[in-house]
Specification:
heterodimer; A: about 120 residues; mainly beta; 7-stranded mixed sheet; 4-stranded antiparallel sheet; about 0% helix; globular; B: about 110 residues; 11 strands
Chain lengths: ~120, ~110
């Protein structure tokens, strides 16, 4: 079964740091681009960061650039998000999501999502 | 930066009725890069449609997507009780790499 399982969320003070992990199973992890998408309480979805299968291409939303770092360890089938200088507005459920493939065609959408991990930034 | 505007914000319908959800982009986008998701309370989003009109694996054929240029539509032909949820459109672009609409809540009338 294809599965993504996030961990590492919690309560942190403004200015603090947190590292999220996403363990993947059921597919060839290194062959797929991955992203982090967040959702503030009661709000919509916001893409945060993405990384290619080989980690040679990385993108960030402007709102997190310079503060968050995405990485992956293909030997451990795990995606990471290092979050530094956290702000109250970073409070959200953070989802990891797999870039989809339909047959042999890469699709520009997310076909598998984890269950999410909650990050709360508050003093 | 492209902005995706979904309408209506809330749609109240009864089971068995037809639902039409709209997603308008602030500038023309490639239909290959438009997707739709369904999200139920406390759950992760689920991919319904990619490439504007292709159904994802396991999605019932009552869900269909269409559109081009700046106007895209998700249609649910005959609503089932489990279809009441929030729906998001999404566009893949340049900066930011992915953009989501603000969502349409489909509620039971």
């Amino acid at each position: 079964e294809v599965q993504l399982l996030e961990s590492g969320g919690g309560l942190v003070q403004p200015g603090g740091s947190l590292r999220l992990s996403c363990a993947a199973s059921g597919f060839t992890f290194s062959s797929h681009g991955m992203s982090w998408v967040r959702q503030a309480p009661g709000k919509g979805l916001e893409w945060v960061s993405g990384i290619s299968g080989s980690a040679d291409t990385i993108y960030y939303a402007d709102s997190v650039k310079g503060r968050f770092t995405i990485s992956r360890d293909n030997s451990k089938n795990t995606l990471y998000l290092q979050m530094n200088s956290l702000r109250v507005e970073d409070t959200a459920v953070y989802y990891c999501a797999k870039k989809g493939i339909f047959g042999l065609i890469i699709i520009h959408a997310f076909d598998i999502w984890g269950q999410g991990t909650m990050v709360t930034v508050s003093s | 930066e492209i902005v995706l505007t979904q309408s209506p914000g809330t749609l109240s319908l009864s089971p068995g009725e037809r639902a039409t959800l709209s997603c308008r982009a602030s500038q023309s986008v490639s239909s290959s890069y438009v997707a739709w998701y369904q999200q139920k309370p406390g759950q992760a989003p689920r991919l319904l449609v990619f490439g504007a009109s292709s159904r994802a694996t396991g999605i019932p054929d009552r869900f269909s997507g269409s559109g081009s240029g700046t106007d895209f539509t998700l249609t649910i032909s005959r609503l089932e009780p489990e279809d009441f949820a929030v729906y998001y459109c999404q566009q893949y672009g340049s900066s930011p790499l992915y953009i989501f609409g603000q969502g349409t809540k489909l509620e039971i009338k």
